Amino acid sequence: xxxxxxxxxxxxxxxxxxxxxxxxxxxxxxxxxxxxxxxxxxxxxxxxxxxxxxxxxxxxxxxxxxxxxxxxxxxxxxxxxxxxxxxxxxxxxxxxxxxxxxxxxxxxxxxxxxxxxxxxxxxxxxxxxxxxxxxxxxxxxxxxxxxxxxxxxxxxxxxxxxxxxxxxxxxxxxxxxxxxxxxxxxxxxxxxxxxxxxxxxxxxxx
Length: 206
Known about the structure:
Layout: H1 2-14, E1 18-22, H2 26-42, E2 49-53, H3 62-75, E3 78-80, H4 92-101, E4 107-108, H5 121-131, H6 137-147, E5 170-172, H7 178-183, E6 190-193, E7 196-200, E8 203-204
Parallel strand pairs: 1-2, 2-3, 3-4
Antiparallel strand pairs: 5-6, 6-7, 7-8
Helix pairs in contact: 2-3, 5-6
């Protein structure tokens, strides 16, 4: 708890947000969620704190889970995950419903994780879909949205759409639709980063 207090003291001093990696499981992890929520509200950091991983949320009983979700929503805490194999699925439908009511209660799947894979956000979204048993086109599209548009604020990309003034990060795929792009793990035909073409026809140019 002393380390947690030190993190929040530093955030308050610097006016910075926090990304807290929470790996404690079960009730211990749930207790840490409560501590984080309490400190977030106490110093007015609502909307500026993200809990990454935080698998305890998927490990506790449903009544306890709802209690924690209420605290998370009240504190405006964001959740991020890479949905690793054999981790506890997060209650993402409830999180999505809460996010629709409050912009500060959001979830995404863009965060650092184990040293596996290549960091491709579509692959992370595919892992999320597999872990949570997603099957319908709507749910698969939601998984992609979690890893892209909804994850953008976690890395300070407020302007991430296809509109003037945005950063111009674009990935082009030969897919019929969003679910098709996700489930077939297609080759990235073109990748544009900051307006610069860095991959063309699968060939790295940098």
